[in-house]
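tokens incoming
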């Protein structure tokens, strides 16, 4: 059996109820459907806002790689190219 969960929708159902069983059942189904979508929307919005807030507090540490080019010891025509992560330290 469908039950309304939010007090706003329970109040609407109480005021709009007519006493005609098939009309009341249709009204309950419509209110229940709208209420379900509203709850899903509010939950989705809360999650999206929490994710946005967390991302603002914890910025991503994406950094660009380091590109270097030097003369090759083995070939005179081709340079040696190297792409490394910024946290890599050569010894």
């Amino acid at each position: 059996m469908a039950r309304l969960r939010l007090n706003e929708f329970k109040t609407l159902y109480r005021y709009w109820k007519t006493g005609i069983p098939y009309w009341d059942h249709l009204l309950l189904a419509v209110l229940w459907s709208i209420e379900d979508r509203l709850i899903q929307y509010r939950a989705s919005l809360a999650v999206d806002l929490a994710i946005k807030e967390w991302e603002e507090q914890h910025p991503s540490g994406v950094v660009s790689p380091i590109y270097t080019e030097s003369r090759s010891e083995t070939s005179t025509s081709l340079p040696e190219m190297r792409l490394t992560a910024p946290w890599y330290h050569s010894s």
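note: The helical segments are 7-16, 21-57.
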